[in-house]
Specification:
The chain is built from no helices and 11 strands. By secondary structure, the protein is an all-beta fold. Strands 2, 4, 5, 6, 9, 10 and 11 form a 7-stranded mixed β-sheet that branches. The protein is globular.
Length: 126
C-alpha cells in the first residue's frame, strides 16, 4: 500500500524560502509520476509540479516556474519541493500525489492520481 507523508510546512515571510518533503513508501515507484498540488482556502486543488520517478523529468505550473524546484533525493525515498521567493498567493495546503500515469496524460489533473498524502500547510505572511 502506497503511503505518502508530507512535512516541512510552516509560517514564513514574503520572499522567504521553504523546503517541503514527501516520504514515499509501500512499493517501488519506477515509472511513477510524483506530483505536488496545493489548495488554498475556498479554491480548487491546483497543480504545482511533477517529476518522473525514473526519468527525473520535471513539469511546473506557470505560477511557480523559476521559483519552485522538485527533486528526488539520493536515497530514492523522498520527493522534495524547494520553494523560493514565496508570495502570499503561495499560501495553501500542499499535497504530495503519485500514480502510474500513461504517457501523454495531462499531469495537471488531480483525478489522475490515486495516492495522496495528508497535506502540509504553508502560510506566507506579508
Amino acid at each position: 500500500q502506497v503511503q505518502l507523508v508530507e512535512s516541512g510546512g510552516g509560517l514564513v515571510q514574503v520572499g522567504d524560502s521553504l523546503r517541503l518533503a514527501c516520504v514515499a513508501s509501500g512499493r517501488t515507484f519506477d515509472r511513477y509520476i510524483m506530483a505536488w498540488f496545493r489548495q488554498a482556502p475556498g479554491k480548487e486543488r491546483e497543480f504545482v509540479g511533477a517529476i518522473g520517478w525514473s526519468s527525473g523529468a520535471t513539469l511546473y505550473a506557470d505560477s511557480v516556474k523559476g521559483r519552485f524546484t522538485i527533486s528526488i533525493d539520493n536515497t530514492k525515498t523522498t520527493i522534495n519541493l524547494e520553494m523560493n521567493s514565496l508570495e502570499p498567493e503561495d499560501t495553501a495546503v500542499y499535497y504530495c500525489a503519485s500514480d502510474l500515469v500513461q504517457p501523454g496524460s495531462n499531469l495537471e489533473r488531480p483525478d489522475l492520481y490515486t495516492n495522496w498524502g495528508q497535506g502540509t500547510l504553508v502560510t506566507v505572511s506579508s
